[in-house]
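Is this the right way to post structure tokens for a design question? Let me know if I should format differently. Anyway, here goes:
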């Protein structure tokens, strides 16, 4: 046999053990060190490495490295040199006898393996995409011959598998990093959203108790039903549920069932295809579809007709919807939170609410007690609202309720609950002439439920709109200040506001004034 032909013959004695060594592990480091052991005498290489190209991070990542003396050190990753191009590797393996002829590789290895002088390099590509390389190197020039190159060429497919496994591991790790980063970002968003909720919600003792319950089930997907009289804070609690849930970054879709006429409920629920009816100019998604991946809040669920309840139940069971005029079944994935001031059990007994729907909704009911049963909440809520009013109206001094008013408030029944408290305080502050001794004016329409009603003068109970009240108040203040805005005896000082805030307030209310000349 001629010398040249003998070089083309692959060393069969080594081929099979090498393939077995490569395939012995899915861990690239283990495979490489095993195959290196099999090939090291034949190749007479000083070391070998595998690197892959990470497209996401645009870097060359060394995933495995081993050296003849058994020592290997992690090589990390490097950015591909921008101004240089890699050598084109034809016929699967490149035999480079002098690294200075391949400036790209020379640059890539300059930091981590500066002593490399020659190498056999297998290029791993898939459909025009470069995956990485497997390289056996020497610290001497002109180390490798054709027989060695042929052997590596015959192992190309096995090395390919090893490289793509390594690439997958890197991509998985990247994914994990991204998930981690995403979780971190979600935590940040959640914290800032919670801070926002905290800013607009008084952390009353009852609310803390409710929040603890909500947190307990926050990792589950159970539907929740929030019960309570009107104005007691059901929506506040629903917002908390959403913010504490796993779906907090998903959509939060609200539908007030009491505000939708029966004829439109299907359209709200299911949406429609373009052209489904005369007015259907464009396609519309229903609430179930819009809430996909997030939370659907059905407020006033007790107002749903029996027919609409059937349709809701079907969606909850089958988790698919079809738009009006459509044929396609669209899968929907949402968490349901419902609220009502009605007694659904009573309604079910009377046949006005479906038992099967109630059963589904009532897995985790949260009852918010009316304000009259939450004496411990009254003071923190009052403080919270008074502080909010101060910043809303730019009042610099603290707002203090009269002692008598506080007593009346504690005895009052608050039929309109927290909403009534909020409105009552706003009205009282706006009509008060002494912020250090504010007399609370209770709701005249409340039906004489509290003792306070008797002490409020009828004239005040004939309530005007807030705007009109404010207008009258500021006109009176201006009159008392003889039209002066600033200064110690000016209207701003009298109303405890900054002069600029007062001017813009007067502007908004359309209060015109002229400075009145002091009488001589
Ligand atoms: N803990 C709280 N802190 C601050 N404001 C609150 C709190 N609870 C309720 N409120 C306020 O009271 C008002 C009524 O609350 P909310 O709308 O949540 O009540 P609701 O029970 O959903 O009422 P409805 O049955 O009429 O829909 C809102 O302005 C809300 O901001």
């Amino acid at each position: 046999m001629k010398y040249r032909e003998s070089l083309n013959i692959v060393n069969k004695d080594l081929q099979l053990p090498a393939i077995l060594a490569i395939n012995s592990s899915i861990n690239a480091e283990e495979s490489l060190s095993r195959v290196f052991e099999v090939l090291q005498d034949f190749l007479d290489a000083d070391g070998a490495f595998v690197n892959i190209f990470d497209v996401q991070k645009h870097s060359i990542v060394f995933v495995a490295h081993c050296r003849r003396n058994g020592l290997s050190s992690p090589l990390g990753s490097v950015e591909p040199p921008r101004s240089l191009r890699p050598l084109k590797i034809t016929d699967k393996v490149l035999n480079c006898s002098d690294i200075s002829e391949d400036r790209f590789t020379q640059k890539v290895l300059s930091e981590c393996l500066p002593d490399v002088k020659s190498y056999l390099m297998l290029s791993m590509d898939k459909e025009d995409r470069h995956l990485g390389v497997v390289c056996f190197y020497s610290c001497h020039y002109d180390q490798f011959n054709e027989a060695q190159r042929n052997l590596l060429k015959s192992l190309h497919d096995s090395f390919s598998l090893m490289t793509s496994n390594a690439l997958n591991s890197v991509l998985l790790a990247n994914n994990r990093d991204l998930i981690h980063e995403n979780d971190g970002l979600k935590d940040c968003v959640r914290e800032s959203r919670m801070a926002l909720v905290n800013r607009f919600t008084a952390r009353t003792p009852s609310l803390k108790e409710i929040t603890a319950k909500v947190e307990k089930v926050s990792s589950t997907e159970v539907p929740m039903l929030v019960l309570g009289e009107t104005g007691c804070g059901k929506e506040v609690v629903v917002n908390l549920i959403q913010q504490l849930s796993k779906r907090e970054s998903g959509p939060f879709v609200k539908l007030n069932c009491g505000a939708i006429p029966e004829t439109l409920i299907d359209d709200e629920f299911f949406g429609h295809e373009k052209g489904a009816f005369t007015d259907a100019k464009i396609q519309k998604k229903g609430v179930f579809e819009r809430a996909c991946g997030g939370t659907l809040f059905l407020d006033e669920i007790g107002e749903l007709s029996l027919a609409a309840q059937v349709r809701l139940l079907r969606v909850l069971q089958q988790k698919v919807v079809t738009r009006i005029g459509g044929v396609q079944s669209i899968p929907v994935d949402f968490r349901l939170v419902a609220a009502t001031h009605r007694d659904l059990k009573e309604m079910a007994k009377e046949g006005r609410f479906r038992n099967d729907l109630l059963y589904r909704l009532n897995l985790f009911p949260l009852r918010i007690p009316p304000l009259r049963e939450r004496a411990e909440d009254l003071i923190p809520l009052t403080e919270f609202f008074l502080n909010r009013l101060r910043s809303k109206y730019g009042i610099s001094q603290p707002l203090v309720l009269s002692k008598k008013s506080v007593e009346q408030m504690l005895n009052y029944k608050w039929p309109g609950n927290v909403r009534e408290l909020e409105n009552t305080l706003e009205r009282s502050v706006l009509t008060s002439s002494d912020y250090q001794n504010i007399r609370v004016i209770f709701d005249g329409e409340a039906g004489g439920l509290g003792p306070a009603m008797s002490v409020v003068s009828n004239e005040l109970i004939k309530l005007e709109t807030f705007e009109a009240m404010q207008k009258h108040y500021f006109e009176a203040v201006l009159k008392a200040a003889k039209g002066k805005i600033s200064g110690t005896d000016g209207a701003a000082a009298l109303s405890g506001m900054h002069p600029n805030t007062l001017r813009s307030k007067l502007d908004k209310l359309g209060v015109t004034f002229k400075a009145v000349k002091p009488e001589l």
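Format looks fine. Someone answered above. Worth noting: The chain has a mean pLDDT of 84. DSSP finds 21 helices and 15 strands in the chain.
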